[in-house]
């Protein structure tokens, strides 16, 4: 479906300071790939939510950023967040708005899904969680049905 | 006891290196003065570089005497720590990376090693090898001490700057009688937003403010945590009798908030600080009218 280039960068997510660095790095990478201001802001916000999940719920982890190219030549950016935390027991519930296992608003995971084009979660209870999101340059986000 | 006597004539390699360093102090300092690390840091005169070299040789000899060639915390290093930090910092300022500074430090070993080998020509090869290893361990420790000192200085600098940011970035501005504004700039993490909330609530009390404007023009990313902090601040201000208006929501941020699914319905928002001020003035009953245009009939 698409060809992925090598991993462009690996950023540790271990503290609040790292979150700020994740946001800055994703913003720069998105600019280089050619994202417009709105798409850039969406991707950075999604990255901020997911990185915080990695830190708060996964006990820290890493972010890998990869430049990808679709079959039709569209450029994109893929962000892979992985941790070795407790995992997500009920993915369906975790993705629903307003559900939180911490003291946040419970919008992080579901909200990030609406901010990007492709969204995959791979979670094994007890072994960790990997969230992979991809956004493409100038392609409207598909409206998602309520579910 | 012949065995014991043999032991005392043959001191440990570390002690022997210490003796050698004291014996050859002058030559080593002279040779080091020609190395890039010393040449570029002490630019005023060569004597200055040689002096600095002597101080470091003395420190190394002291560490070797104490048999602590592997210990970066050895007492001998205490006196030269500051000087090593200064030298490392000077090279960093000149644009060298940590790796480059480290390899300049490594370049100090060969001249000393050559002197050592020449000095110990009479000794058997096993003894020479032991002493050379001891020397190179000692120089490695010196390198470690220098890098350690440089890193801890950087960490201290970063901590100071972080504290400064906390203070600097949250001024409360009085815009009008009863109206205060906080321009928020940069990342709004938990620590920052705590400071913002405290300063804002203090200002509400001090200035008898009925309106507080939180301007987020300078906040690059509004995610759910930032929104949560904003809503908490608004709720706290409301408890104290002040109405909050959030202004400076840029188009990209507005779209992102909607997609993220955040409900800021309970918060009064305006696009710009000017709009927010206009709203507050209007609510206070203060009317601002434009001055009559040039040439208009004055009453």
TrEMBL record, chain A:
Residues annotated as signal peptide: none
Keywords: Kinase, Serine/threonine-protein kinase, Transferase
Keyword field contains Membrane: no
Superkingdom in the source lineage: Bacteria
The keyword Cytoplasm appears for this protein: no
Histidine kinase/HSP90-like ATPase domain segment(s): 38-139
Molecular-function annotations in GO: protein serine/threonine kinase activity
SMART domains: HATPase_c
PANTHER family given in the database record: ANTI-SIGMA-F FACTOR RSBW, ANTI-SIGMA-F FACTOR RSBW-RELATED
Name this protein carries in UniProt: Anti-sigma regulatory factor
Source organism per UniProt: Actinospica acidiphila
TrEMBL record, chain B:
SUPFAM superfamilies in alphabetical order: SpoIIaa-like
Keyword set, alphabetical order: Phosphoprotein
CDD domains: STAS_RsbR_RsbS_like (cd07041)
Keyword presence, ATP-binding: no
InterPro entries: Bact_StressResp_Reg, STAS_dom, STAS_dom_sf
Chain ranges of the STAS domain: 169-280
Pfam family, one: STAS
Name of the molecule in the record: Regulatory protein
